[in-house]
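fyi for ur records
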Amino acid sequence: MGAEVGIRPAAGPEGNGRPPASGAHHTRSGPPLRAGGGAGGASGRLRPRLESPHSLETPGGTVERTLQYLETVEHETGASPQWCVLWLHGLGADGHDFAPIVPELVAREWPAIRFVFPHAPVRPVTINNGMRMRAWYDIAGMDFATRADSAGIVESIAQVEALIAREAERGIPAERVLLAGFSQGGAITLAAGLRRERPLAGLIGLSTYLPGAERLAGFATEASKRQPVFMAHGSGDPVIPIVHSENSARALRDAGYDVQWHRYPMAHQVCAEEIADLRTWMGQRFAAAE
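which gave:
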């Protein structure tokens, strides 16, 4: 498989995104991040939770209470970012989990990017005996057709939409936002992106699947089909078997989406080859916008 970066071992039904205590596979750590290839210093800071100025409606329902912006970890690869990558972590992890991917992913010629890594809310997860952890939605069981908590998904979509709206207020419009996610975060990425009336620059779903893929026609917007999709999965994933990713990609293609799908000889994790393929795909998005 080659060098592995940011290994995401399984823990429970969708993995916690954290490194094992010992062994050869680990998540990168070390000094403050710098953008790979000399793209400029990646500034890292914690943005506190703030109240959203208005409640948000989603195609799946209305979140009645006033939302608060999720707390986020941010890294900027240069001054005055022109693009945003909003990246959602997996079950039980947090916004710091994928921050080390920035120097591995960024290319020298890219425009300045703001990477935003939000922390999911802490909630009880049924399949993990009700243990409280960071999760984008509850998981009731192992049946992929019924396991997802639809109310939790609707709420997380609204929270993601609030962050996208905040980026617009900070000068980065939706068409320059890439929405990405790993595992459970990838499920929210796809669920949110396909419901949008104003397309994003693209969707990135790693080691994930689309909840309700069999009902895609009932919630996907026509405008969302203008968003290219990058999906990648490990052939030996014991947490989300690869067939669920394959079925999701097939459903998207059949519905008219431009999907680039990759498989790698790995488990529930991220590898160097995957990052290289994602770098190429992201570079195409930046070039297309020029």
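Residues 1-43, 48-66 have pLDDT under 50 and may be disordered. thats all i got for now
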